[in-house]
Amino acid sequence: MIYVFFGLGASLRWGAGPLNVLQVALAFGLAAATLVQVLGHVSGAHVNPAVTFAFLVGAQLSLLRAVFYVVAQVLGGVAGAAVLYGLTPSAIRGNLALNTIHPGVTLAQATTVEIFLTLQFVLCFFATYDERHNGRVGSVALAIGFSLALGHLFGV
């Protein structure tokens, strides 16, 4: 809920002019970093079903727990969007920052880019949560947040 609320909220056009891609990328990255810092020890802060699926396939998560995580992620995302929808004026709300494919990009190209963006994000999760990292250097939350921001900077 928090991730979607803040990420989409920062993606709305609150003022005149073009949308600032850096603002959107940082909002999603900081929201993810905050959730990893706060909830990482509880659930691994899987705010994305792709991360949960990857952990399931990588035998890092049981099927039952993965199903409950994905259900919670979907319900949380819907709740975050619903709260944002209810709090924003219709002129600003628009389509709640629904992503669309650029007219010059084919569906196959967009899908390929999305696969690479998801791959680097999931890889970052696996690398930062890897138990074999003795004496981790840096912040897990920041690494994941920056990874997500990187994906948004490229993908948006």
From TrEMBL:
Catalytic activity: H2O(in) = H2O(out)
GO cellular component terms attached to this protein's record: anchoring junction; apical plasma membrane
Keywords annotated in UniProt: Cell junction, Cell membrane, Eye lens protein, Membrane, Transmembrane, Transmembrane helix, Transport
GO MF entries: structural constituent of eye lens; water channel activity
Pfam family, one: MIP
Coiled-coil intervals, chain numbering: none
Localization per Swiss-Prot or TrEMBL: Cell junction; Cell membrane
Origin superkingdom: Eukaryota
Membrane topology reported for the UniProt record: Multi-pass membrane protein
UniProt keyword Metal-binding present: no
Family under the similarity heading: Belongs to the MIP/aquaporin (TC 1.A.8) family.
PANTHER family linked: AQUAPORIN TRANSPORTER (PTHR19139), LENS FIBER MAJOR INTRINSIC PROTEIN (PTHR19139:SF39)
Protein task: Aquaporins form homotetrameric transmembrane channels, with each monomer independently mediating water transport across the plasma membrane along its osmotic gradient. Specifically expressed in lens fiber cells, this aquaporin is crucial for maintaining lens water homeostasis and transparency. Beyond water permeability, it also acts as a cell-to-cell adhesion molecule, forming thin junctions between lens fiber cells that are essential for maintaining the ordered structure and transparency of the lens.
Protein name per the record: Lens fiber major intrinsic protein
Organism in which the protein naturally occurs: Chelydra serpentina
